[in-house]
Amino acid sequence: MRIFVAVLMLLGLVAAPTATASAAPAAPQAHHVGYDRYSLTVDGRRVLLWSGEFHYFRLPSPQLWRDVLEKIRAAGFTGVSLYFHWGYHSPAPGVYDFSGVRDVDRLLRMTEELGLYVIARPGPYINAETTGGGFPAWLKTVDGRARSSDPGYTAAYREWLGKINPIIARHQVTRGGSVIAYNAENEYAVNVDPAYMTQIQQQARADGIDVPIVHNNCCNADLANWSSGPGAVQIPGVDDYPQAFNCADPGTWGTWGEGVTRRLRDDAPVYAAEYQGGAIDSAGAGYDKCRELTGPDYMKVYYKSNAIGSGATMFSYYMLYGGTSWGWLPQPNDVYTSYDYGAAITESRGLTTKYDEFKRQAYFMTTMAPLTKTDPAAAPKPADPAVFTQARANPDTRTQFVLVRHPDRRTDTDVTTTLDWSTPDGDYQVPVRVGGRDAKILVAGYDLGGQRLVYSTSEILTHVTTGGRDVAVLYGREGEQGRTVLRYASAPSVRVLDGDVRSSFDGKDLRLDYTHHGLARVLVSGGGRPPLLLLLGTDESAARFWRMNTEAGPVLVNGTSLVRDARLDGDRLALRADTDAAGEVEVFAPARHLVVDGRYVATRRTPSGSLLGSLPGPRAVTLPELTDWRYRAEPPATGDDGWTVADKTTTASPTKPKTLPVLYADEYGYHYGNVWYRGDFVADGTEKTVSLNAITGKGGSYLVWLNGRYLGSAAGGTQADSDAPVNPDPGRGDFAVPAGTLVKGQPARLSVLVTNMGHNDDWTADDTRFKQPRGLFGASVGDAKIAWKIRGAVADAERGPLNAGGLYGERQGWHLPGGPAWRDRPPSTVEPGVSWYRTGFRLDTPKDQDVSVALRFGERAGKYRVFVFLNGWNMGQYVSGGPQRDFVLPNGILKSSNTLTLAVVSADGGAGSPVPVSLVALGNHWTGGLR
Ligand code: GAL
Questions:
Q1: What is the CA(760)–ligand 1 centre distance, in A?
Q2: Can you list the domains of the chain with their CATH numbers?
Q3: Which helix (H) or strand (E) holds 64?
């Protein structure tokens, strides 16, 4: 915890802890968290919270949590926003598990070690794209409307908060930890119950939460926002997805509005609680298209417009790393296994051009201390109305921040004009250029280290004071003109080390004019100020810089593909860094020696005063072929153990069944994935049709056998979804009884395999959507009286409740490594139903490389789905013809020796060989990073 405070001190974000005389180990340093209309404060110092959303439950590998968190920190983020997923921790009422991949205490410790603030979001309801919106499926059988003060629901959620709140509480900044805010509920906007909203906050306080309580209001709309009245929170925030989610059309802009966060309370900072950082792929267009929809141009225009338009100082971008909805984590309606989200950090942990844009903005936002307290200010007037300006200024320093863009953000033209700019240091005519779909924040009247920046038409990346001088990185679009004006008492000496930069001094202002190209370098000294090294780059060259804080002050690194950490030890700078290719590394630090990932790097001193050396790249890796497959068949409803009699006649679900008994899987404690049904009856020989209904959520299906004979399959349905009219006959399938199958007076058996796709969310807080059943909804075979049994998953303590469903092979542990050897080769053809395949492979990637591996599906005809089990972990569901072909296999789950098992559920049988799959590398880095 002390590391956390030290890091924050270096960031200038908290006051230094007071020294104690005692030699005993210091207790974690407590801090005071406060706020006013401008910002959060820690021990009275203003905090710019630049945060991104990360879900531990979508990355089942704690060693990779650190990797992602380090990448987040390296881009200049000061915080992360974390949902905590009730259903992920609770397989049954009263049962909670925080071990292994569910060890959120470990997660919060990591954020402390890395100096990242946390916005803790434990719901109880959380995220629309995960099963049940984060509710455990057992809650569907509890009486009482979820997300209300109804006693049934209250008792259930109190159990969850009673477990998670104390964990969050002990990691608060007020106790020396990282949690700076606590989010009550999630977009609680319709069907609201203020008593519930009050009670969850009361419980948080009773459980020791003393940081500000916040909420994320939905959609920037006029729905309940909890800014006043009963249930109000201290800092109400706003969620905004201005680009909407149509990834199939990535060129559209601003489908859902202007995206400027509203101020909801006068006494609290403006909080952009979930600002769109990517998109769900409901159209199945592929996440690269979502990344385009929310790419760097969108980020420039919308994020910068929002910062200046709203004055927010609390930002969180949703998602920053999306990850994988592995196992049965997905909600059925809009998502699939990958939750890549088109985010800045890909599912395979790769850094994208969106990451670069985040870094450019984050370094700026967190370097410029005056940004934490601004009011709207008069904006400089452009000569050409085709350019729009808007400004804010810090009332104490008078520093101005001016947004420059097109009035209509969608405009694609390139305009050059002059601003009539009244800066704190005088009036100027300032040339600016705005390209299509671009925006800039220009600064005037700023104390840049020991310098005085009068104004610049370049944007500021960051600046540090290191080795007795200021080093500043400014940037602009490649080929655009830039001008930077600095004030000096007398003519300074100007030395252009690199690039084409013209300078003039008029007795008070040093004016530098240049074209942005590559990286120009200018050394300015004298003039009554400390020396300044000005680095004038482009978007691309600026993004190559990394700003790291060490205990001996900040340093800048130019090059590598990631700097995770920097330490100054005397005259030695030690970096932990990654490269994706061999190349140069340059450091601006008070150091004479450079060590990267534990290796000494030969360097030379450059005219810029930096150290320059070279680093190796990763060696190419060859992944093994997947061969030598073995096979096991799973006959329909096989095995006599583990069946539960299904004979209930009532249900807590508002959706009542078409026939009795109630066959909903949740009623019998089977909550996730596939379930088998067995219906036994005595035939009278006249039955013509098997009539079934199954509710599976979108994309589910079921397969039917009568006396072991395959009758066919049907798509599962949905019902009572508040988005759609109620369907009285959901997921209907009528199957003709083949002649001679049923004989009067003879026992008969119906076997049904239902693939349930997860549980609906509860955005509407009315139970109809969330408590929609899963499994059979109606079943009849003529007038036969059917005795039903159902069989679902067995518990998996290590992998948690969402790993496996109720396939026979899953119950037998066929998906787990080990067990008796699989001897059978795949047959030449298989019947419709469930076929299991297994192979093993070794992965011998170099220890000092981070290789991100995925399983790629090739083409094969037919209607089938495949459950991918890596070393027992269900890494997702491939659906033939579906949008996802690559399934990321995270390191940690992926080891040097691996067992890959595929469960193929096929509606039409066919080739007995396994579906075509191969291993692919989605990333390969030389690293000292993964610890
Ligand atoms: C918000 C919600 C998030 C997520 C997002 C869309 O409404 O709070 O959890 O569902 O929409 O991806």
A1: 14
A2: 3-19+30-351 (3.20.20.80), 374-615 (2.102.20.10), 636-791 (2.60.120.260), 806-926 (2.60.120.260)
A3: helix 62-74
